[in-house]
Structure formats: structure tokens, C-alpha cells
Amino acid sequence: MQVSEQRVVRTEDSVQVFARLSLRLSQPVEEALLKGVPLFFVWQADVVRDRWYWRDKRLTTQYRTWRLAYQPLTRRWRLSLSHQAPGAAQQFSLHQNLASLEQALAAVGRLHRWSVLPAERAPITEEHRVELGFRLDPSLLPRPFQIGVGSSADWDIQWQQRLAVPARVAPDAQDGTDSTDNVPSADTGSN
Amino acid sequence: MQADRLSPAARRWLWLAGVAFASGVALVLMFLLTLATRNRVVSEQHFGWLLGVNIAVAAVLALIVVWLIARLVMRWRQRRFGSQLLSRIAWVFVLVGVLPGVLIYTVSYQFVSRSIESWFDVRVESALQAGLNLGQRTIDVLSADALVQARLVAQGLANQSNASVAIGLEAVRERLGASDVMVWGAQGRLVGGAGESRFDITPQRPASDLLRRVREARGLVWVEGLEEDLGGASNASVAALRIWVPLVSTSIALSEESRYLEVKVVLPASLVQDALAVQTVNREYQERALARSGLQRMYIGTLTLTLFLSVFGAVLLAVLMGNQLMKPLLMLADGMREVAAGDLSPKRALPPRDELSSLTHTFAGMTADLAQARAMAQHSLGELDAARASLQTILDNLSAGVLVLDADGVVRMANPGAERTLRCSSVDLLNQPLGAVGPLQGCATDWLDRFAEVPSADGVTHSHWQTTLELGPQTDIAGAHQQTLLVRGARLPDGQRLVVLDDVSDMVSAQRAKAWGEVARRLAHEIKNPLTPIQLSAERLAMKLEPKLAGPDQALLDRSVKTIVDQVDAMKRLVNEFRDYARLPGAELQPVLLQEVLTDVLALYETSDVPVRLEAEADCPAVMADAQQVRQVIHNLVQNAQDACADRSGAMVTLRLKRSKDGQWVRLAIIDEGSGFDEAILQRAFEPYVTTKPKGTGLGLAVVRKIMDDHRGRIDLSNRIVDGCVQGAQVSLSFAVA
Questions:
Q1: Do residues A141 and A37 make contact, with C-beta atoms less than 8 angstroms apart?
Q2: Which of B44, B135, B224 comes nearest A150 by C-beta?
Q3: Whether B606 contacts B713, CB under 8 Å
């Protein structure tokens, strides 16, 4: 797994995270995918404040869960997104059908202007850190599946980074032109 | 209730084991529960954690079991009481607990592995795959067919103007069997539409990227809405084929604007349903196939863990329960060991819950009885000892000699009095036959015969005999060494014989003195009467005949008369002494100053051959005495001393007068430098007729003794011994101070 971009941008009203991971799945994982087993990739961002005298204070935790599944009937890759914490009651929205696994993985591994903390909730300063994590979450896999998967290195995909919050920048100084979320253009593909 | 009866250590162990066992079982149950309910709360990480805790509990149990077994083996090796029975009980419990567990485990193991394997079948898998492929093909065929049809339609529409296209669309829609048909302009402008989407107020505009790709590929087709229902995802739209075909106009007039035909063909519901069902089942099947090894491992792991937990728990419980069962027995064993070692302290007893426990009760009671009996025995033994000790003290301080003989006449016991009386050491007495004891050689047979004569009647105390025995050399005139013993014999209850020896020498001596006094008085009276006429007659003979005789006759007469007169004088003196001894008047005690008496007496001895010296302490107090009798005593003693010193030149007699230390007595010592007393004489010097002097009557010291007895004074006779040699004799007289 290679990380080509990871940064935090602080604007007037939010803290946004940018990241780009180039995911590569191992053979057993890809086989499982091709057999129709859906996989769940979880982005997790914690805004914490360092406290030398105690455990770090966790201001907020946000999730971004991708569900990636192969549809053998249409031979297409379906991505679904959820902003809820990983769990059984998770609701997915924003579905996309993609023609290839590479496209899907690129979409999963990309974070663009993910606002991890609404500004009105608490003032954010340079004291804060953003703990950014990405993992393949086996706890959402079918139950019997988890037993063998838990200890296997093939299934162990995770990445974690602690990012500093930079000084505030003007909203127009940031890069990127589109103001919408980073959903790739939906429902496109080719035979 | 039960826990109260256990020792704290046992209770603690029971608690520990119970908690460990219960927690292990609880964990396993929880694990199984999560498996059964597929509770999402316990996820895969928790499973690992659960597994770890289970293994830890199993390890702890295993350790405890190993420790217990090691302890049991050690106790077995040490041959501790109860270890064999404990092992046997533990074995039984272990077998009872473990065998069914192992059986169930084996069966379950087989069942689980077989049944999981049986879920998976190659034919099922290929059939599912084939079904899926069938679905794929069908959709592919439908798609390709629809695309071809759409292209045909597109060719027809391509050369028509926008207006005519819009009019003819409904016909196109019916021809294609589509639900929607739309024609889009180049900039995403809706040219015309037919079908349901006509009623959409804001139809979704195509993206430019899509249109570009449609143009490049000359037509695109894809399936939409063919997804499984994800929870919450709005997927109400029916599965449909969506076909985009560019309207490539051949006429030049219309070529400025590129147009696109969009067709939506709804797929048959049954087809969609079947295909989706096949896809879902296939996915689930694949999931399970992938998870097969995990499942197997999970079930078997759980089973194995459960087996371990139950086995260890069973062994633990077996050992603990065995211990519990063994407890009364071990207590009994301990108690017996203590009793065997002589410790009769109160024993612990368990409450009588069962037979074994009541056995400890009985044992404790028994021990208590035993302790009481022993205490009583010791008490009476102590009393016996005390009695014996007092008896021994009495025997030791008895002046009479006591001998105990056994049936064979061997001396078994002799008190110090016997040793004194017989003048033997205990070695010479004890365990010697009576005949072998020196002084008793002559009479032993006689005594034993007397015992034989005494009937051993029931009243043993009355059957006794009595005799006297004279000991010591008979040749001595004075009988100085002679001892008179009164001997009494009696039978003791257990065949032993008792001989009591009373030394009655002193009594005999006193009786003899009294007899002598009587004899002397009578003799003096009878003899004295004719003496005066004899003397007078002799003197008259001398007076009458002296003038008539001359020469040798006269000398003969003088000599004979002188002899008669001298002998009569001697006889008179003898008679007087006898009389004095026998008829001493009672002393009339008055305060007397001894110095004056001594001075008076010594005046008579100033011219004697042996000088007499007086060493009187100054201011000696007056003593109670009869001055007349004291004079006689001093005369007697001084004369004796002078006689002792007569054949020694330069020897002298010393009279020493001094007060005793406590001031109650005044002591007069008459010291000579003669040859001293013979040992035999010292013993009986005061008896009448005992003397060392050739001409002595033997009455001098007897009279002295009698006078001193009348004065309640003391008289001591001893030899002065300097450097081991006898340097003379000393007679000490003690008078009470007035």
C-alpha cells in the first residue's frame, strides 16, 4: 500500500483531510471478492488534543465506510458509501457501479476534502491532531469468515497516520476546484 | 454451612477452584451463545480475546491439577496415610468425569468435521456457477439484441428532423418494447421522449463524458437496477437495460448537431428475480466455502477447550472431593499417631455428619477417657511415690535397723539404722544371703528356722518372733565391744521377711549400773561392819605383844599388823567408794563460783609429783552446782589425770575454765599429757567397774558421771590428738550458768 498524498487543510469553517492510497489486494482477498464476498474499507478520522498529563482527548470521530462488491451477473463492481460507524445497522448510500476493480480501489483509496470536524462544534487550533486511519474491516464480514481471516496476513490491510493541523488558510487558497464531494461520476462505464 | 466446617486453607482452595471452574464454564457458554445467536457485538477480535481467556483459564486449571497430582504423588511416595485411598477416589472421580467427556468429544469431533464437509459439494458449486453463467448469458444476449434493435431504429431516425423524431418516438418505443425512449441533443437538451419518463419534470441529463463514450463506441448498453437490496439503499427501480446509441445523420444539413437515442428496456421480473436469487445463493455458498476451514477450526477448538475445561474441572473436583472425604480419616490417623506417641491431648472431631465423621467423634471421646484414666493412674502413682518417700524417710531416720529378706533369706532392703547397728556398708548387706553378712553368720540359720516355725496365717502382722543377740568379742572384760541387739522377725505379705534390730546396749548398760549400785550398797554395808573390829583387834595385838617380843619376832609382828591395818584401810576405802557410788546423796544445787572451788581443791595438790595448773577465764559466772560434789568430781578427775601422767616426766595437768560461746554454759576441761584413752574404754568409760588402772575400782568415772547427771550437766571424754598422735586425754564438764 502506497500513500501518495496525505494532508490536512484547515479552512475558516472546517478541517478537511486529503489522502490518496494506492491499494493492492492480495490474491486470496481478490478471489474472495470475485466470488461475491463484499469487503468493507473504513476510513476513520479522530480529532484529538494532546494532553501530556492524561490520555489524549478525543474531540470527534468520523467514519467513512466503503462497501465493495462484485456483481457476477453484470460483471461490474459496486461501491456503496456510509458515514456511520461500522456495524450491523450501517446504512449505505451513494452507490456506484464501476467497470473494473482498479477504478473501485482508486475510489476507495481517495479522500478529497473530507470534512472531519464542523467548525462550529469546537475551535480547532494547532494543538490538535488528526489521526487518520484506513483499514479493511473484517468485523463486517460474514461471521464464520472472520475466524480464519483474523489471523491471516493476506487480509491485514491497514494504515494509520497522525497528521498535524496546520495554520488556517483562506478557503480560496486551497487546491481542487470542485466543491462537491469526491464521488466519481456515477453510473458510468463501458462494456 | 458446609464451608464453616472446613479449614481456612481448604475453604480457600475450594473457592479458588470453584471460581476458576465457574468462570471457565461461563466463558465457554458465552462463546457458544455468541456462536448460536450470531451476536454482532462480539466480533472477531473478541473471539480471539475469548479464546485467549479460555486458554488461560484452562492453563490455570491445568497448573492446579498438575500441582494437586504432584502433591498426591509426593504423599504417596512418603507413604502418608490416606494418599492411596485419596488416589483411588480421585481416580474414580476422574474416570467418571473424563470418560464421558472424551466420548462426547470424539463423537462431536467426528460429527462437526463430517457435517461441515458435507455442506460443500462440488456438484452444487458447479450448478450454482452454471446458473450464474446462465443469468449472465441471458442478460448478455438480451443486451446485445436490444443494442442491435436500437441501432436499427437509430439509423431510421438519424435523418429525420428533431420534430419528426419526437413524433415518431412512441412508435419506436412500441417497436423496441421499451419503457422509455428519449432523444437527446448535443448539449444534453431533451429533443423528445416517449414512455414513463415523459412525465418526469426534470429528466436526468446525460453527462458529457457519457455522450463522448457513446459516440466513440457507437452505442452502449448496460444493466441497471440489477442489485441486491442493501439495507436502506433505495433500489425500488425495476431492473432494466439502458441503451445509448448515437444518431449518426448522413444528411449534411443535420450534421451540425449530434443527437443520441436513449432506450430503457425493462427486464422480465422473473428473470431478474431468478438471476438475483442465483447470485445471492452463490455468494453465500462461496462465503461459506471460503470460511469452511475457519468454521471447522472454530467448532473443534471450542469443543477441545470445553473438553479441557471439563476434564480439568473434573479432576480438580475429584481431588478436592477426595480430600473432603479423606478428611475424617486423616484426622483419625493423625490422632492415632499422636496417641501412639503418648499425646493424649483433646482431639478434634468433625460434627457427626456421616459414619466417618462420627468415627472421629468416637475417637475423640476415647482419647479423652484414656487421658482421664492416665491422669488418675499418674495421680495415684504420685501418691504412692510420696508414701514410699515418707516411709523411706522414716526408715532412714529410724535408730532401729530394719532388714527385709526374701523367701530365700537374701537381704533385699536395709536401712541406714541396720548398717549402723551391724557396722556394715550397704554393699555388704544388700543382695547377700543373711548368713553371709559378717556379724550375723552365727545366727542366720536360727532366724530362718524361727521364720519357718511362725505360721503364715492370715493375720500376718501378729505372727512374729523375738530374740536377743550379743555381738562383739566376748573376751573383753569390760565388754567394751559388746552390743546387745533385740531382734524381732515378722512375715511380710508377699513371702518376704522383716527383721528389726534394736540396739539395746545402752539400756543394758543402764540396768547394769543400777544393779551395781544395789550390790555396792549392800556389800559396803556388810563388809564395813567387820572391818573396824579387825583393825582394832590388830592394833590391840600390836600394843599388847610389842613389849614382849624382841628381835625378829617383833619385826614380824610389826609387819603383820601393818599389813592388816593397811589392808583394812584399803578395804575401807573400797567399801567407801562403793557406798559413795551407790548412795550418793541427791545434789543440792546452788550458785557456786567454780574458781573458788578449784582454788580450794588445787591447794591440796601444790606439793604433788605431777604439777597442776589452773587456767581460769576471768569473771566466769556462777553455776548451779553442789560444791561438795563438785569437789569430789574434781578430785577424782585430777587424780585420774595425775595417774595418767605418772610415768611421764615433765608432764602436767591443766585445768581450763571458760565460758561457752552462747553464755549458757561454763566448761571445765581437765587436760593431761598422758597416754590417752583406749578406743574400747572411751565407749564404756562411765560404766562402773571399767578401768585401766591395775588398782582401780572402776568406780571413779562412774561416780563423776552420776554426779554430772544429777547436775543436768554434760561430760565429754576424748583424746587430744595433735598431728594424728594421741597427746593426752581431755575430760570436759559443762555446768549450766546460774
A1: yes
A2: B44
A3: no
Q: How far apart are CA B212 and CA B466, in angstroms?
A: 165
Q: What is the pLDDT of residue B612?
A: 86
Q: Which CATH superfamily is domain B398-503 in?
A: PAS domain (3.30.450.20)
State residue B385's pLDDT score: 94
CB B501 within 8 A of CB B676: no
**Residue A184 — very low, low, confident or very high, per pLDDT cuts 50/70/90?**
very low
Whether A148 contacts B291, CB under 8 Å? yes
CA distance B11 to B6: 6
Q: Hey, is the C-beta of B128 within 8 angstroms of any chain A C-beta?
A: no
Enumerate the domain spans of chain A. Answer: 2-173
pTM score: 0.51
| Rounded distance between C-alpha atoms, residue B257 and residue B79, angstroms | 110
pLDDT at A99 over 50: yes
Q: Please choose, from the candidates B321, B313, B383, B371, the residue with its C-alpha nearest in 3D space to the C-alpha of residue B342.
A: B371
Q: How far apart are CA A138 and CA A144, in angstroms?
A: 11
| CB-CB under 8 Å, A37 with B286 | yes
Residue B535 to residue B321: CA distance in whole angstroms: 130
B587-736 carries CATH number 3.30.565.10: yes
Asked if the C-beta of B288 comes within 8 angstroms of chain A's C-beta atoms, the answer is yes
Residue to test with chain B: of A74, A79, A84, A139, most B Cβ within 10 A: A74
DSSP β-bridge partners for residue B468: B486
Q: Do B44 and A147 touch (CB under 8 A)?
A: yes
Q: Where are the beta strands (DSSP E) in B258-299?
A: 259-266
Q: Which residues of A3-41 are buried (b: 16+ CB within 10 A; e: fewer)?
A: eeebbbbbbeebbbbbbebebebeeebeebbebbbbbbb
The cell for B643 is 595417774
pLDDT of residue A151: 61
Q: Which of B327, B363, B333, B349 is nearest to B80 (CA)?
A: B333
Counting DSSP H helices and E strands in chain A, the numbers are: 3, 9
pLDDT at B583: 64
E strand segments, B125-253: 180-184, 190-195, 220-224, 240-247
3-state helix, strand, coil in chain B (%, to 5): 60, 15, 25
Instruction: Report DSSP letters for A82-149, one per residue.
Output: E-SPSSTT---EEEEEES-HHHHHHHHTEEEEEEEEETTTS---TTEEEEEEEEE-GGGS-HHHHHHH
Task: State how far the Cα of B598 lies from the Cα of B139, in Å rounded to an integer.
Answer: 176
Cα–Cα distance between B737 and B620 in angstroms, integer? 9
* pLDDT at residue A14, rounded to an integer: 76
CATH topology of domain B144-267: Beta-Lactamase (3.30.450)
Which residue type does B80 have?
A: R
SS3 B115: helix
Which mean pLDDT values do the consecutive 10-residue runs of chain B (738 residues) have? 54 74 71 58 60 80 84 84 77 82 88 80 87 89 90 82 80 83 79 73 74 84 74 54 82 65 85 84 82 76 78 76 77 83 79 79 88 93 94 86 84 84 79 79 79 61 73 52 79 82 81 77 79 88 84 86 86 76 72 86 82 84 85 84 80 86 86 80 73 69 81 84 80 86
Instruction: Report the distance separating Cα B458 and Cα A35, nearest Å.
Output: 124
Asked if A100 has any chain B CB less than 8 Å from its own CB, the reply is no
Residue B714: burial class (beta carbons within 10 Å; 0-12, 13-18, 19+):
middle
Residue B94: what are its φ and ψ, rounded to 5°? Answer: -65, -45
Contact B398, B421 (CB under 8 A): no
Among chain A residues, CA nearest to B45: A150
